[in-house]
Amino acid sequence: MYTQALDTAEAQSKPADTAAAARFQARIDAEQRIEPQDFMPEAYRRTLIRQISQHAHSEIVGMLPEGNWITRAPSLRRKAALLAKVQDEGGHGLYLYAAAETLGVARETLVDQLLAGAAKYSSIFNYPTLTWADIGAIGWLVDGAAIMNQIPLCRCSYGPYARAMIRICKEESFHQRQGFEIMLTLCRGTAAQKAMAQDALDRWWWPVLMMFGPPDAQSRHSQHSARWKIKRFSNDELRQKFLDATVPQAQFLGLTLPDPALAFDPETGHWRAGPIDWAEFEAVLAGNGPCNRERLEARRRAHDEGGWVREAARAHAEKRRAAKARAA
Ligand code: BYC
């Protein structure tokens, strides 16, 4: 896969780059922001392109499971909130593609990689949304996990990514609350509504824990990303923070987390989860999750159907360029 082995480029950098790389690392260590015009090692640039583009793709593909419920939202208020949320996600994707472009890669290239099936996006969006409660579970849990992961990215060493994340996190916090409120309404409703909320939690819980990425010992990029202050916390640290924040929320809702081994450890003050099925995570990453094919087909169809918009934008840009040339 094209995104793999990017970090190894650092090991191949020329001796002439060594002094510049040392100055670069000193700036990072001093908590200075790196901007697009600044020197950066090739491996840093490529790691950022990998992560930011995967993040952008996740936002865009992430519109699909929820978009599926816009026409079936149970009230006008719910429909308006869901429309706004899905629209926000499209916006997040655009900020992130723009941030990636500052690193010298064209948005079209990144989109082509997604459509060709050569780029990753978050594993979580390969699961189906079967009932309205899934919209609550996505907001509460998926956006909750996203916030946990993304708040530290507001302090990422790369300026354009960090600034994009500040705005994204403000919107994600609204998304999380609307999801929790859907769950709360269902849990305070009829027995059938509460059962629907429990069923959604049962199906989303484990995939959400996987969203944080592989265990630290198997995370191939973490070491470099931590040194470059792209990542401020490890995958397992963020998963633990999420677990500690979410267990009391599930208790408040009166729902049961589908983990018989879940236990509070009074010595450390942390909740301990049972083992995660990493084989399932690997299968989803390999393209064999419940909805991988459907998601890519939907994106390809949307891209084809939007061809006339790109064509019109190109024609308009050409017309403006010609008018400017005539006037000059
Ligand atoms: N799914 O070395 P590691 C949202 C890959 S959008 C798929 O730990 P890293 C929302 C990883 O890419 C939320 N792949 O990697 C939108 C790498 O593969 P490659 C998206 C995953 O980068 C709409 C390999 O596994 N958030 O919230 O150090 C509606 C080894 O992993 C996943 C972001 O993208 C996964 N879950 O750490 C609602 C946040 N996990 O590239 C909500 C930004 C790992 O070598 N990204 N992989 O082929 C990050 O923070 C980091 O990239 C990760 C992974 C923590 C995800």
Account of the 3D structure:
By secondary structure, this protein is mostly helical. The protein is 65% helix and 2% strand. The protein contains 14 helices and two strands. The structure holds benzoyl coenzyme A.
Structural class assignment: mainly alpha
Global Rg: 21 Å
Q: Into which percent range does the helicity of residues fall?
A: 55-70%
* Total beta strand runs: 2
Residue ranges: pLDDT <50 for 5 or more in a row? 1-11
Round the mean pLDDT to the nearest integer and report it.
95
Ligand roster: benzoyl coenzyme A
SS element count, helices: 14
> Gap between N and C termini, in Å?
47 Å
List keywords for this structure.
single chain, 328 residues, mainly alpha, two-stranded antiparallel ribbon, 14 helices, 65% helix, 2% strand, globular, disordered N terminus, binds benzoyl coenzyme A
Write the layout of secondary structure elements.
Blueprint: H1 8-11, H2 18-29, H3 42-61, H4 63-67, H5 76-101, H6 107-115, H7 133-150, H8 159-187, H9 191-210, H10 222-227, H11 235-253, E1 263-265, E2 270-272, H12 278-288, H13 292-305, H14 307-327
Antiparallel strand pairs: 1-2
Helix pairs in contact: 3-5, 5-8, 7-8, 7-9, 7-11
This protein binds benzoyl coenzyme A (BYC).
Summarize the structure.
With 328 residues, this protein is an all-alpha fold.
